[in-house]
From TrEMBL:
It holds the Pfam family ROK. Belongs to the ROK (NagC/XylR) family. InterPro entries: ATPase_NBD (IPR043129), ROK (IPR000600), WH-like_DNA-bd_sf (IPR036388), WH_DNA-bd_sf (IPR036390). It comes from Agromyces lapidis. This is ROK family protein. Signal peptide: none annotated. The lineage of its organism: Bacteria, Bacillati, Actinomycetota, Actinomycetes, Micrococcales. It comes from the Bacteria.
Length: 403
């Protein structure tokens, strides 16, 4: 086989090494050249040259010298990229949100608008999404930042090429081309656009900050119920892109008809709409929006106030049974609970363990029953997952940063 030209080889190596240096600074924070060399295994000379290239491109900058215990003050390098930004657009059952961040994930601008949940009317929702994206795009211009990528987060499974929303039961959508809808309203969109499902993004984000695990089951509830299965460190996307649509695990025999067409889905007995109705808080949704109503529901459950607490108690066995089935199907190290359910992890764990007594034997130092852990990122989990995902894609391809 002919060898590739030398310049190509060294170009690839250089690109890889730029990514390694940049990745270290992004993940570990401001670092001295010596610290980067030690952590990455690159020579001091190589690090100096790579840092010079990254500084010249405006991606890294030096901090003021810091005095350490002894020796001379050291200068660290931090992420600058002061003219770049990531713009995340998100549409959930309540609102459309646009968030502008630095490459390091620091928030620059955020705008959120309620769309009033017009069921079965994607055009009306995309109008609102387009308005917040336009607002954040203007903010980027005002701040002198170029948007290098625009991930769009939807609370629904995504599939196809180009990607579309497959079905969103929270909004009464069938297949909807969100990217196309934004293009037709806004013309050219800022940066390359990706469309991603919230459950997967939130799962990856939680996995990043929780003790990293190769196999994890993630379930969350904000608007509907969603989740993800992480196996061998990767999201199990499935053949049709709906892997991890845990709200539609058909758990109740001959149960109520779900918008997805099945009977007895978990969301029909434990979804927020059902709980809010039973808790007598349905009017609050119309008044203040779903997110505010769910916050109130969660507070009443925590306080043990009837009827919210009773509604939660009725939902728990179904949540537990779904997790029991799913945990034997996927054998995760941990089950991570997200959305407003995170605050109620203890009751979910108790219900989950009530039917797992015989699998308690530990083997190879690992408990056979997965740990049930509360997610830590709250309602922003998917947004943060989208930002971090964009950042990692950019680091993997420094040419997009002008390098
Ligand atoms: Zn369903």
């Amino acid at each position: 086989m002919p060898r590739p030209p030398r310049s190509l080889v060294s170009g690839d190596v250089r690109r890889h090494n730029l990514t390694v240096v940049l990745g270290h600074v992004v993940r570990s924070g401001p670092s001295a050249r010596s610290e980067i060399a030690e952590a990455t295994g690159l020579t001091r000379g190589a690090v100096t040259a790579l840092v010079a290239a990254l500084s010249e491109a405006g991606v890294l900058r030096e901090t003021a010298p810091v005095t350490t215990g002894r020796g001379r003050p050291i200068t660290r390098l931090e992420l600058a990229a002061s003219d770049l930004a990531i713009l995340v657009a998100q549409v959930d059952a309540d609102s459309a949100t646009a968030l502008l961040t630095t490459l390091a994930g620091d928030e620059l601008h955020r705008v959120s608008r309620r769309h009033g949940r017009p069921m079965g009317d994607p055009e009306a929702v995309i109008d609102v999404l387009a308005a917040v994206v336009a607002d954040a795009t203007s903010a980027a211009v005002r701040l002198g930042r170029r948007v290098v990528e625009m991930p769009i987060v939807v609370f629904a499974p995504v599939g196809g090429e180009p990607p579309v929303v497959l079905t969103d039961t929270d909004l009464g959508w069938g297949e909807v081309d969100v990217i196309g809808g934004l293009r037709s309203r806004l013309g050219v969109l800022p940066g390359p656009v990706v469309l991603e499902a919230d459950g997967w993004l939130a799962a990856v984000a939680e996995r990043t900050i929780l003790a990293s695990t190769e196999s994890m089951l993630y379930i969350k509830s904000n608007s509907g119920i969603g989740g993800a299965v992480i196996a061998n460190g990767r999201i199990a996307e499935g053949a049709h892109g709906v892997g991890g649509a845990l709200g539609h695990v058909a758990i109740v025999p001959d149960g109520e008809l779900c918008d997805c067409g099945q009977r007895g889905c978990l969301v029909t007995v434990a979804g927020p709409d059902v709980l809010l109705e039973k808790a007598g808080l349905a009017d609050l949704v119309a008044e203040r929006g779903l997110a505010a109503a769910v916050d109130e529901l969660s507070a009443q459950i925590s306080a043990g106030a009837a009827p919210a607490a009773d509604a939660w108690a009725e939902a728990l066995p179904w949540i537990a049974r779904s997790l029991q089935v799913l945990s034997l199907a996927t054998d995760p190290e941990a089950i991570v609970i997200g959305g407003f359910w995170a605050a109620h992890t203890a009751s979910i764990e108790q219900a989950f363990r009530s039917n797992r007594p015989t699998l308690a034997e530990a083997r190879d130092g690992l408990p056979a029953i997965p740990a049930v852990v509360a997610g830590r990122l709250g309602a922003d989990a998917a947004l943060l997952g989208a930002v971090w995902g964009s950042r990692d894609r950019l680091l993997a391809d420094p040419s997009r940063l002008g390098l």
